[in-house]
Fold this sequence. Notes:
This protein is of the alpha/beta class. It has twelve helices and 14 strands. The chain has a domain at 281-370. The chain has helices at 26-31, 83-90, 121-127, 145-157, 161-174, 191-203, 221-238, 249-255, 273-278, 283-290, 333-337, 383-389; strands at 3-4, 10-11, 35-50, 53-67, 72-76, 98-104, 110-112, 128-131, 209-213, 241-245, 258-263, 266-272, 343-346, 349-351.
Amino acid sequence: xxxxxxxxxxxxxxxxxxxxxxxxxxxxxxxxxxxxxxxxxxxxxxxxxxxxxxxxxxxxxxxxxxxxxxxxxxxxxxxxxxxxxxxxxxxxxxxxxxxxxxxxxxxxxxxxxxxxxxxxxxxxxxxxxxxxxxxxxxxxxxxxxxxxxxxxxxxxxxxxxxxxxxxxxxxxxxxxxxxxxxxxxxxxxxxxxxxxxxxxxxxxxxxxxxxxxxxxxxxxxxxxxxxxxxxxxxxxxxxxxxxxxxxxxxxxxxxxxxxxxxxxxxxxxxxxxxxxxxxxxxxxxxxxxxxxxxxxxxxxxxxxxxxxxxxxxxxxxxxxxxxxxxxxxxxxxxxxxxxxxxxxxxxxxxxxxxxxxxxxxxxxxxxxxxxxxxxxxxxxxxxxxxxxxx
Length: 390
C-alpha cells in the first residue's frame, strides 16, 4: 500500500533487499527515497555588474525532490527552466550547486553527492548514471563502441581484457545491438543505434538510478517508441529507477509514474501522472497540458487552449512574489507580493500556488487522446501490480 511522506510523494514498498544503514530501522529504510534532493540551488555568474553588485542567474532555486525505488519520475517544463541543470547536478557535474543530494546506495549507505569523499565517488558513479539527449555529440567519434561502452568498466571497476569485452558484449546484446559491431565507430550507426550505445554505456557498471535527459527528443518518431519500450523493458528486468527529463508531455504521460513540473528553476507541482493530467492544480501545469497537440485532426479546435501572455521572466531578475504571476490569468495581488510555499494538498500531491484549492483547472478528459506517438506498450501498471504479476 502507498504511504505518505513529508515531501508529498506516494511511496511503494521497494523490492530492494539492501540492508538498512546503521541507526536506521528496516521499515524506515524501506520507506526512504533512493534519491532525496533538498534546497538545491545552482547559480551562474553573468557578465557585467548592476548597481546592487555582481549579477547571477539562479538556474535552480531551492528544489526539493524525492525519487523512489522502481519508479519513473518525470521532470517537465519549458526550455530553460532548469531541468538539465538539475539532472547534471545529480550527476555531480555542477560544482556551483549548493544544498543536499542524498542517495541511498545498494548497501544501505547514504551519500551526499555534493559533499562526497573522493573514496566514495566511484561507488556513486557506478550506481547513478545518465543517458544524454544528443547521441551524436555525447559519443566520442574517435573511440570504437567497445571503448565507449567499456570505459566505465575500466574507470570504475578496473576491468581489462577478456572480462571487460565479455561484459560489453553482454550489455550490447541487452540493448539490441550486435556484438560484432564493437570495433566500429559511432559515425557508422543511425541516431537510434547511437542512443542504444548511450544506454549501454549507462547500464554497463550496473546502476540503480538512471537520469534520462531528453533521451528520445532527438530521435525520429518510429525510433522513439522503440527506445521508450527498451527503457521500460530494462526497468522491468533490472529493477531500475528513472528520473525522466522531458518537454514532451505526451511521452511523459505514458511512461512516468509521477511527474514534477518545473518553472523558472522551481518545482511548482508534483503528482501521480494520472492525477496531474486529469486534474492539474497549478496554472502553469494547465497551460503545459493544453499545449499538447491532438493527433486526430477532426478534434483539433474542440479543446480549450490556455495561451500564456508574455515571455518567461529573466532568471537573473525574477519577479517578486510568485514567479509565474506575470503570465498567470488567475493571479491576484497576493501572487504579486508573496511567493507561495510548497504544500501538500492531498496524499502524494504538492503544489506551490496560493489559490490551488480554489481553481478549477482544465486537464485531459481522455488520456488516450493526447499522445502523438504512444509506445506500443501504452499503459504502465503501478509498481505494486508489477510485483504481483512477477
